[in-house]
Amino acid sequence: VLQVKGKAPSAPTGFEVSGCGCVPTIAVLPTELDFGTVGKNVTKQLALTLSNDGDCNLVVPKHGLVVAASGASSADGFAVVEDATFGATNGSADGIIPAGWEQVVGVVFTNAGGSLGSAEAVLTIHSNSQDHPILTVPLKATAE
Predict the structure, then answer these.
(1) What are the b/e assignments for 83-101, b being 16+ CB within 10 Å?
(2) pLDDT tens-digit readout, 2-14
(3) Fewest Cβ atoms nearer than 10 Å: which of 10, 35, 52, 116?
(4) For the segment 67-95, what is each residue's pLDDT rounded down to a tens digit?
(5) 3-state DSSP call for residue 88?
(6) How far apart are the C-alpha atoms of 11 and 22, rounded to whole Å?
(7) Buried/exposed code over 122-135 (b: 16+ C-beta within 10 A; e: otherwise)
(8) pTM score above 0.85
(9) What residues form DSSP beta bridges with 58?
(10) CA-based nearest residue to 72, from 134, 115, 40
């Protein structure tokens, strides 16, 4: 109940306000990307699905998809695939996912022929989701 005080004798003293507002909710599948073994000078692409299970637009800011090193590994070789229809993948605009919709984001690992062995990184996803404003997706591959 919202109370309103006024000096006029006929002014209302209170009224009820209700509602739940609009809440976007992010979900990511799969929860990690394992590229397996990737040969020299080969690029492998996997898909990550971002979904909005909320009731209003989910916004991933234009620089809201960030690949960074994990532990002692370098993030070299991992990248988000640019998609002109979803600005967050190329930093040109915010990416919008309407309520009840999904957006597939491509992630690649390129073995440029450098060091052999395991590579690990983390994809961090920033959004306006109230439950999970920051999500991380582990990325791993083995360079052959």
Answers:
(1) eeebbbbeeeebbbbeeee
(2) 566 666 666 556 6
(3) 10
(4) 998 776 677 899 999 999 999 998 899 99
(5) helix
(6) 31
(7) bbebbbbbeeeeeb
(8) no
(9) 97
(10) 115
pLDDT of residue 11: 59
Closest CA to 128 of 91, 96, 89, 81: 96
Q: Exposed, middle or buried by CB within 10 Å (0-12, 13-18, 19+), for 5? A: exposed
Q: How far apart are CA 89 and CA 83, in angstroms?
A: 6
3-class DSSP state of 136? strand
Could you write out the three-class secondary structure of 6-54? Answer: CCCCCCCCEECCCCCCCCCCEEEECCCEEEEEECCCEEEEEEEEEEECC
